[in-house]
Structure formats: C-alpha cells, structure tokens
Amino acid sequence: MKEASMIQTGQKISARNVQVCYGDSPAIRGVSVDIAPNTVTAFIGPSGCGKSTFLRCLNRMNDTIDICRVSGDIRIDGEDIYDRRVDPVQLRAKVGMVFQKPNPFPKSIFDNVAYGPKIHGLTRSKAELAGVVENALRKAALWDEVKDRLGSAGTALSGGQQQRLCIARAIATSPEVLLMDEPCSALDPIATAQIEELIDDLRQNFCVVIVTHSMQQAARISQKTAFFHLGSLVEYGDTDQIFTAPHDPRTESYITGRIG
Ligand SMILES: Nc1ncnc2c1ncn2[C@@H]1O[C@H](COP(=O)(O)OP(=O)(O)OP(=O)(O)O)[C@@H](O)[C@H]1O
Ligand SMILES: [Mg+2]
After folding, report:
1. Distance, CA 114 to ligand 1 centroid (Å)?
2. 51, 54, 68, 70: which to mutate for ligand 1, most atoms within 8 A of CB?
3. Among 15, 125, 232, 251, which is most exposed with the fewest C-beta within 10 angstroms?
4. What is the greatest pairwise CA distance in the chain?
C-alpha cells in the first residue's frame, strides 16, 4: 500500500515521516498518518512494534525519555507540536493521556481531578473548580459512585474506578485529544465494558487514540484502525475494512492470529 493513500486532509492530527530512535535503535520508521476528530482510532500490532512509542510522540511524552529521539513532522490542527515555542506541559493539557496501569496521585478523589485545572489556572473560584471536577467525574461515569466521598484517597478505589478517575483527571483540562495506552488491560470484563462505553461517549467531545491488544475491543470501539508491525505503519483504514478485508498480508496474518 502506498504511503500517500494513507493521507487524508482536514484531520485533527497529521503525522508525516515520523522516525523514533532509542539511542541507535530505530523504533518507528517513516510513519505518516492522519487522525480524524471525533473518532476513536485504534493502534494494533504485535508487542514491541512501536504502538506506545508512536502514541507518546503525539503529546511529546517521549521528551521525558533521555535516549529517545523523534524526527519528522507532527501537527495538531495544523500546529507543529515540536516547534520550539510549544510548551510541552501546555501541550499535554490539550493532548491528555491515560496509561495501562491506573496511576492516581496519592491525593483525594477531588484533588486528583482538580490538579490539572489548578496548575493550568483554568478556574477562577472554588465553586467553578468544584463544577469542573463534577463535570469530569460525570463524563468519566464515576460521579454517582464517588460523590459522597470526594475527600477519600483516589488510591482506595477499585481498579476500574481508579482508571475512570484517571480518565476524569485527563479530561478535566478539556483536552482536544485523549491518548489511551491499553487502558483496560488491568481491568475485569465489567470494568472494561464500562470504560468501552465511556470511550464511545467521549468521542462526541474528543479525538480518541487507543492502543489495544484486544482485536475484539478495537473492532467494538474504533472507527479507524492502524496496524503497526516492526516499527512501520503497515495499514490504516476503516475498522470494518481492516478486520474484514485487510489489504496487506501482514495485517491479515495478525488479525487471524498467525503473527503477534
Ligand atoms: N524507554 C525505552 N528505552 C529503550 N527502548 C525502548 C523504550 N521504550 C520502548 N523501547 C523499544 O522500542 C520498541 C517499541 O516499543 P513500544 O513500547 O513502543 O512497543 P509496543 O508496540 O507498545 O509494545 P507492547 O504491545 O508490548 O506495549 C521496542 O523495541 C522497545 O524495546
Ligand atoms: Mg505498549
């Protein structure tokens, strides 16, 4: 498949010829992709193929890894996010991230969600902050379970609740893009179903990019799927097409369980 055919215009995120190396070892080679707004895009592929590495390029989380070098061009709404004038901390408020293991701060439920709006000065009064926290917890489908104990420790919640708390924390700064790296891998099927339902709702407000090892999950929740293999983006398209009529034999092998 030619690279040019993977590129469409009018999208939220545009990556062109992205390369990533850890020291001398290349991890991502020449990836170009456009990611649509109000869409869930799934990144799939075998372990070590570079899904997390590429995801971390999209909010410059790789900047925090000393030996990691990123080149190429990544734009969000046309703005080069690697431009020297871009503050990575501001960028990460706009491009939020949820990790594989729920990682609430050792703070109260309220303070976990209030943290971002506070450090970014997004609210002017306590009442306004309380409103932002409530709204984020509602969107993360956690409000009803925690509204009577906002002062308790976030770490005292169940795993699935902690992950929804981390989602609430990520959306409290009103990001435009939400990056999720295997957000359900530590969760049971019930919590997973709740998070999946939530991701589908989030699509109304955000551009969601999710890494998943579960092809059933990718098929259930995403509209677009990108298949990575050995650091390259092999195939990208409508999820239905990728799972029913993949163009590349490597994609077909992966989705039918022959590689990975
Ligand atoms: N911090 C790091 N330092 C050095 N090499 C790294 C680092 N993180 C990832 N790599 C290497 O980059 C390559 C891609 O790794 P990455 O974690 O992006 O893969 P992945 O597709 O997310 O895999 P998985 O499905 O197992 O999470 C691998 O060869 C990995 O060893
Ligand atoms: Mg990974």
Report:
1. 32
2. 51
3. 125
4. 57
Each residue's pLDDT tens digit, 166-210 = 999 999 999 999 999 999 988 888 888 988 998 998 899 889 999
Q: Whose CA is nearest to atom 8 of ligand 1?
A: 53
- Which residue's CA lies nearest to atom 11 of ligand 1? 27
- Going by the DSSP 8-state scheme, the letter that residue 211 receives in this structure is E
Domains annotated on the chain, with CATH: 2-255 (3.40.50.300)
pLDDT tens column, 91-150 = 998 999 999 889 999 999 999 999 999 999 999 999 999 999 999 999 888 999 999 999
Band the pLDDT of 10: cuts 50, 70, 90.
confident
Residue 209 corresponds to which tokens in the numbers above? Answer: 């990019």
229 lines ligand 1 (CB under 6 A): no
DSSP state of 153: B
What is the 52 CA–ligand 2 centroid distance (Å)? 4
Centre of ligand 1 to C-alpha 3, Å, is: 23
pLDDT at 6: 46
Amino acid at 85: R
Q: What residues have CB less than 8 Å from 158, skipping those under 6 apart? A: 191
